């Protein structure tokens, strides 16, 4: 199954670029916003695909704003639940890592700028997150990590197209490295 997972990711990346260049050649102009729109679609897919995990782990059972609607982004649902105070502890950590400002912006609300030390803590949290792979089963953590990356795609979509491509490429590289390390650790411990 892991091979199908990687084949799907590679095909998405390849055909995403093929389609981008096709549109560029067909229309005779650079397709502005193409990667931003793709990032938002991936974010919406993550909201729908991982709804059971997100609804169970990130929000309380009495929440009115649930994950699963294909029209919503993960950040948008988190923003609504942040406002109604219906986030679980994991949900609060996720909103912190994504930034409350971003989650509120996703639902059309604006919040003040955050202090640098909060942004630094968030960056350190993201750097430590992949280490959790060492303490959990690879499949469950891959699902969680991939879903969180999809939420980040929504955040990255606030940047220009070249930055989005760069960050998506980095996330695929991170997933590949983590899978490779997991495979190595698993095979070493079998001997």
**Largest beta-sheet characterization:** none
Task: Average the pLDDT over all residues and give the rounded result.
Answer: 76
Low-confidence residue ranges: none
**Cα separation of the termini:** 23 Å
Estimated structural class = mainly alpha
Helix content: over 70%
The Cα radius of gyration reads: 18 Å
Strand content: under 5%
Global outline: globular
Looking at how many chains there are and whether they match, the oligomeric state comes to single chain
**Total helix count?**
9
Count of domain modules: 1
Beta strand count: 0
What string, H for helix and E for strand, traces the elements in order?
HHHHHHHHH
Describe the protein's architecture and organization.
By secondary structure, the chain is mainly alpha-helical. The chain has one domain (32-190). The protein is 72% helix and 0% strand. The radius of gyration is 18 Å and the shape is globular. The two termini are 23 Å apart. The mean pLDDT is 76.
């Amino acid at each position: 199954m892991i091979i199908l997972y990687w084949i799907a990711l590679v095909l998405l990346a390849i055909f995403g670029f093929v389609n981008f260049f096709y549109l560029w050649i067909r229309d005779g102009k650079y397709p502005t916003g193409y990667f931003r729109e793709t990032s938002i679609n991936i974010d919406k897919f993550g909201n729908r695909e991982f709804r059971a995990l997100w609804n169970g782990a990130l929000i309380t059972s009495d929440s009115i704003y649930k994950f699963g609607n294909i029209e919503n982004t993960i950040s948008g649902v988190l923003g609504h639940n942040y406002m109604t105070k219906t986030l679980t502890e994991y949900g609060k950590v996720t909103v912190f890592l994504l930034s409350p400002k971003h989650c509120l912006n996703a639902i059309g609300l604006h919040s003040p700028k955050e202090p640098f030390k909060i942004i630094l803590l968030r960056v350190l949290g993201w750097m430590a997150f992949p280490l959790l792979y060492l303490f959990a089963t690879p499949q469950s953590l891959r699902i969680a990590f991939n879903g969180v990356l999809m939420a980040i795609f929504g955040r990255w979509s606030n940047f220009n197209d070249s930055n989005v491509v760069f960050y998506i490429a980095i996330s695929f590289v991170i997933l590949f490295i983590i899978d490779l390390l997991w495979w190595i650790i698993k095979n070493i411990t079998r001997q």
